[in-house]
Design goal:
Elements: H1 2-34, H2 41-63, H3 71-79, H4 81-113, H5 126-129, H6 131-151
Helix pairs in contact: 1-2, 2-6, 3-4, 4-6
Amino acid sequence: MILLIEKALRLAAALCLLTLTVLVVAQVVLRYGFGGVPFFTEEVARYAMIWMALLAAAVAVREASHIRIDFVPDALRAVSPRARLVLDAVLDVISLTVFLVLLWYGIDMTMFAAGQTSEGLRISLSYPYAAVPVSFFFATLFALLRLGKKTGAL
């Protein structure tokens, strides 16, 4: 099930990247070739970029592929492998806490934005803002699973 969720997130992020690429190329061609662009292209491209980045960040949590500085963990591994495991667990708990805070405030932010509309498309701003709670829900889920595997709970 988790693998299916990860694949769905990857597919959604890839579709957002495709949409972003097509719209930006279209903007350039239309602006310089025809002197104008449709009103919606910049806004949709911006929303696609936001969704893509946040969904990809959730997938990166699943793979533990975020940028990190390994100096201290590598030094701890040389001294004590157990200390390295403890540090990894502490860092995972800190990450999980950050994800939960971002999920909580993302829901609050999305509900606040529901009463506002975008300038170009005239859609509720809750749609682009929903990228935050959706992505951090999955990041929280993936962090919990990773922490559970490390502690032996899963």
